[in-house]
Design a protein that fits this description.
- This protein has two domains: 152 residues, Rossmann fold (3-Layer(aba) Sandwich), CATH 3.40.50; 185 residues, Dehydroquinate synthase-like, alpha domain (Up-down Bundle), CATH 1.20.1090.10.
- The protein contains 16 helices and ten strands.
- The chain has a six-stranded parallel beta sheet.
- The two termini are 37 Å apart.
- Its cofactor is NAD(+); Co(2+).
- InterPro entries: Dehydroquinate_synthase (IPR050071), DHQ_synth_fam (IPR030963), DHQS/DOIS_N (IPR030960), DHQS_C (IPR056179).
């Protein structure tokens, strides 16, 4: 374990309970950013916030449309008169959390942030680790997260009533992200998960513990240790973009993990039996989408489009090589440089929806 100087990493306090009970602790005059759909599904949410006499409440539509400069400007304008001692509370999925984190970082050069993830995907991943970002359009394609900040939350509220209203698809998306961390970071837990699927609350706690253990060692990605959390993200982001974000982030990461396993095998980094074991577990456990979905998406994109998206990826090296997270064993991962000839050789199989 790398020893950090005091204050180098801010641990967010995880608080479990009903939203109404936790909201009673929110400082008066806070700035709330709320996913509009969540507010409709949970009609007591807005009244609970109003009882705390907020500075303002802004409702946004969740999804990638929330991660635009236009949405960010809306938040900045709404929070312009709040004091630097104020609190911004982000209530929604990962996209609401992302744009709210950027806003919290920029308003008054930084205000207090409380994350309230309302999706399983946000609970296990994006609400922890301090990252916030917005998207940009490059050559007509939306590129995910090229502009962002680090701004750690002081608290995270984990409210089971929000997860009870999620669809099976949303549960799968969050579970895929949790299994990503287990497969790449913890062999013992991976074995336990393959024997018996964890309860939802247990899975959230496990995933948050694993992610925090990585973030605490490299809180601002200065040492490269946090890159291991990007397993499945390189080609996952490409598939999200070519689908025009009809493919969810969680499902994209699932398919991206299959691509990463293929790249690892092709380079001799990921042993054949490990690739089979992890791919089978992703099907049997969280239920990763089939490879035919990758093929369907790639029919909508030219190789030129994919090259442009990969070159815009913030994980690309100076010489254009991809820096991908590849498994060396179950629970172990390394960042390796991947040249274009490696993934291009896999393209025909991916386009047919078969394992190379």
């Amino acid at each position: 374990m790398i020893q950090l100087s005091p204050g180098a990493y801010r641990h967010a306090t995880d608080r479990w309970g009903s939203f109404k009970r936790l909201c009673a602790t929110l400082p008066e005059g806070s700035f709330a950013v709320v996913d509009r759909r969540v507010a409709r599904l949970h009609p007591t949410l807005i009244p609970a916030l109003k009882a705390r006499k907020p500075h303002t409440i802004v409702q946004l539509a969740g999804g990638e449309s929330a991660k635009t400069f236009e949405a960010l400007e809306q938040l900045m304008a709404a929070g312009l008169s709040m004091p630097r001692s104020g609190t911004l509370v982000a209530i929604g999925g990962g996209t609401i959390g992302d744009v709210s984190t950027v806003a919290a970082h920029l308003l008054k050069r930084g205000v207090r942030l409380v994350q309230v993830p309302t999706t399983l995907l946000a609970a296990v991943d994006s609400s922890l680790g301090g990252k916030g970002a917005v998207d940009m359009t490059v050559r007509g394609r939306v590129v995910k997260n090229p502009v962002g900040v680090f701004h750690y939350a002081d608290e995270a509220w984990l409210c089971p009533e929000f997860y009870a209203s999620l669809s099976d698809t949303q549960i799968r998306e969050g579970a895929l992200e949790a299994w990503k961390m287990v497969a790449s970071l913890d062999e013992e837990l991976f074995r336990a998960y393959t024997r018996r699927a964890p309860a939802l609350e247990r899975m959230v706690k496990d995933a948050r513990r694993l992610k925090e253990s990585v973030c605490a060692q490299d809180p601002y990605e200065q040492q490269g240790l946090r890159r291991v959390l990007n397993f499945g993200h390189t080609f996952g982001h490409v598939l999200e973009s070519v689908s025009h974000f009809e493919l969810s982030h969680g499902d994209a990461v699932g398919l991206g993990m299959l691509c990463a396993l293929d790249v690892g095998r092709a380079m001799g980094v990921t042993p054949e039996d490990v690739a089979w074991k992890v791919e089978d577990a992703l099907h049997q456990g969280p239920g990763v989408l089939g490879r035919e979905r990758t093929a369907d998406l790639l029919k909508e994109a030219s190789l030129k489009d994919v090259v442009a998206l990969l070159s815009a990826d913030k994980k690309t090296g100076s010489a254009g090589e991809l820096r991908m997270v590849l498994l060396t064993d179950v629970g172990r991962a390394e960042v390796r440089d991947v040249t274009a000839d490696v993934w291009r050789a896999l393209w025909p199989a991916w386009s047919r929806g078969v394992r190379p």
